[in-house]
Write a structure and sequence with these properties.
The protein is mostly beta strands and 130 residues long. The protein contains no helices and 11 strands.
Length: 130
């Protein structure tokens, strides 16, 4: 099972937890959870006017072995207007545009989509059960 929580945070709301949304999916091959502005394909949806987030920005996908991976999907623009960071414990790294990384089993962490032009972010917490 993969569990996600998401909060959209702007500068004046930093530290607030109001408006958090949640989603989960069983660890079955092919299961997917998406984050973005398009409610027709994303389980966690960001504000429509937050254009630094693509229609489908992040995809959490379960592989054939039941392990989950995270992909920063490439959008319609050659250069993104956001930056993405992944934190698991003390491990913190930027995710490259179009990059895919495996999520460790039994781990919790956070993925942050940071607007490059304003103090806004989308914070997605995850827990990947063993």
């Amino acid at each position: 099972m993969l569990e996600l929580t998401m909060a959209s945070v702007s500068g004046e709301d930093a530290g607030a937890t109001a408006g958090m949304t949640m989603a989960d999916a069983p660890s079955e091959p092919g299961a997917a959870l998406r984050v973005g502005r398009d409610a027709s394909v994303c389980r966690l949806v960001t504000p429509d006017d937050w254009l630094f987030v693509s229609r489908v920005h992040l995809e959490f996908l379960c592989g054939p072995d039941g392990g989950w991976q995270l992909a920063w999907l490439r959008g319609s623009q050659a250069d993104p207007s956001s930056a993405v960071r992944v934190t698991v414990g003390v491990y913190d790294q930027p995710l490259a545009y179009g990059e895919v990384v495996a999520l460790p089993r039994g781990a919790a962490g956070e993925v942050v989509i940071q607007d490059r032009t304003a103090p806004r972010s989308v914070n997605v917490g995850f827990f990947h059960e063993e």
